[in-house]
Amino acid sequence: MTLKDTDQLDDLKEFLIDWYGKYDSSYGVPTDELPSDLPTALHELYAFAGRWKDGTDEHLENSPEIFQQQDCLYSVERLKRAGDRITFLEENQANWTCQAEAGNDNSPVYCDEGMLWDDQAEGHLLVNESLYHFLKSFCLQEVVFGCKHLYVAEGQMDQIRSLFNTPLEDVWLNGYYTGLKEAGPTHAFYRCGDVLVMARYGDLWLGSNGDDLAAVLKNADMSPIKLRRIKPD
Predict the structure, then answer these.
(1) Which residues contact 79 (CB under 8 A, 6 or more apart)?
(2) Which DSSP letter does residue 119 get?
(3) How much is the pTM?
């Protein structure tokens, strides 16, 4: 399935249930525990998956563990207020954070990532006009990094496609995340069975929770591509 670039999360929810093969209402945060001024997109994500565990028990209590693999979606209890904005996500080493506007269902996303390399940067800048779009890029990124089997590849996307006997299915294309829009899209995702391929900032990642990826790598001509296994290490 291809996720739509529209103001809804139904297709993301459908993808997550299909990918993990399970869902229970306990994975979400009860609506009476959610701040009333959360933008709709965040409210919906927390209500659906704000306490979805990944089985490792390596995170804080009540954390949405499936969304804390690379960058970190805060648990509802960790949400922070800064004026009229809510800080809801941080980079894995806490180098930058993302904010949304409290009470604004059409909130964009602000990020202070630019302060890492720009001495003139001042705090959080608008980086994504759509919170819905941002969350789809983020959540799919975390799904890939949370895979039991994970590789980073040196090669071209066409070479990755040639590894598979069937065409890769588009999942999310032209995804924007924390970079300024004029720099262009940063994320794209493709699927074949239980294998997810992610193009992220020019790097290619292959992730799987089952046996499909091992079978692909065993049977394909790997000579044009260099793979480095990340997990299991």
Answers:
(1) 35, 86, 87, 88
(2) T
(3) 0.95
